[in-house]
Write a structure and sequence with these properties.
six-stranded parallel beta sheet; 56% helix; three-stranded mixed beta sheet; 9 strands; alpha/beta; binds NADP nicotinamide-adenine-dinucleotide phosphate; 12 helices
Length: 291
């Protein structure tokens, strides 16, 4: 197995496969030798190669776990050097642009490419942040397209299941629309809130007085800015539309507060609290089923 990009996501998958003895040899590759050395020293990969063509030679499975912004270039370089029967998958948080790049670059290898997105992670990045248990109990979304071989999807499904994930399939368009609301929008909100306070200029006092709610809500604003820039640039329409829709809701909320409309505010908060409780229950239920 070759993992391209041995940070949080690729390093964790490599570590999980290695720990479970699911691959004969795991080879890491990526941008800097320093990161690759760290991944090897941490025991996430067996060895590393700095050249992509050398890294994928002989591999039956290649996992692209690099930032979304570089996946297209990686595919262009991979097309000529993948083994004829190799499976290819990715972990990118956006699927539309990744699939478009695959169609542009992969040629005969396209049927063996299974687009994927593990819905697991933390706000940390790099191999030091990786841990083999990351995927246990988490969801992985696969978005196979018309060209994808059913056998390739089945093997990638088996791989994620073997490291403890729950695999679901959906269309590329649904993925990018739904994830824009449930993952990308919360990140935009967390970044926007912290940046808003910084831009106001009284952030020192605000932050000194910040309570648990502020830290809970803004934890994800510690995520890698380059990764989130890439996600925005590759899911522009869906994220912009989700942000605009929410801006409309916030504007209406400001109106209710200004008017002192306590009944509407109470209804809204109660509806949101009940919905949040249901989501949390469903999540707990799934975790207990797995145990
Ligand atoms: P990360 O910890 O920053 O790791 C990214 C890795 O990609 C690093 O090892 C980096 O190497 C390497 N890389 C950067 N540019 C590269 C290039 N041009 N060619 C090859 N490798 C390159 O990021 P991550 O959180 O693991 O995210 C990896 C992917 O998973 C992204 O596509 C992201 O959208 C997706 N994802 C992330 C999360 C999350 O919560 N973090 C969740 C689901 C999916 P250097 O250290 O040398 O730069």
């Amino acid at each position: 197995v070759t993992v391209v990009g041995v940070g949080l996501i690729g390093g964790s998958l490599a570590g999980a496969l290695r720990e479970a003895g699911l691959a004969g040899e795991i080879i890491g590759t990526g941008r800097s030798a320093e990161t690759l050395r760290k991944a090897r020293d941490l025991g996430l990969v067996d060895r590393y190669e700095t050249r992509l063509d050398r890294a994928v030679k002989g591999s039956q499975l290649v996992v692209l776990a690099a930032p979304v912004g570089v996946i297209s270039a990686l595919m262009a370089n991979l097309a000529g050097c993948l083994e004829p029967d190799a499976l290819l998958t990715d972990t990118g948080s956006v699927k539309g642009d990744v699939v478009a790049a695959a169609r542009r670059h992969l040629g005969e290898c396209l049927p063996c490419f299974v687009p994927g997105h593990p819905v697991a992670g933390t706000e940390r990045s790099g191999p030091e942040a990786a841990f083999p248990e990351l995927y246990r109990g988490h969801m992985v979304i696969l978005t196979p397209v018309a060209e994808t071989l059913a056998s390739a999807t089945a093997r990638i499904r088996a791989l994620w299941t073997a490291v403890g994930a729950r695999v679901i399939e959906m269309s590329v368009a649904d993925h990018d629309r739904i994830l824009a609301m449930t993952s990308h929008l919360p990140h935009m909100l967390a970044y926007a809130l912290v940046d808003h306070l910084v831009a106001r200029g009284d952030d020192d006092r605000c932050f000194d007085l910040a309570a648990g709610g502020f830290y809970d809500f803004t934890r994800i604003a510690s995520s890698d800015p380059a990764m989130w820039r890439d996600i925005c640039l590759h899911n522009r329409a869906e994220i912009a539309s989700a942000v605009r829709e929410l801006a409309g809701s916030l504007e209406r909320l400001a109106g209710h507060i200004e008017e002192g409309d306590g009944a509407t505010l109470f209804d809204m908060f109660r509806r949101a609290r009940d919905a949040r409780a249901q989501v949390a229950d469903r999540r707990r239920g799934r975790a207990e089923t797995r145990v």
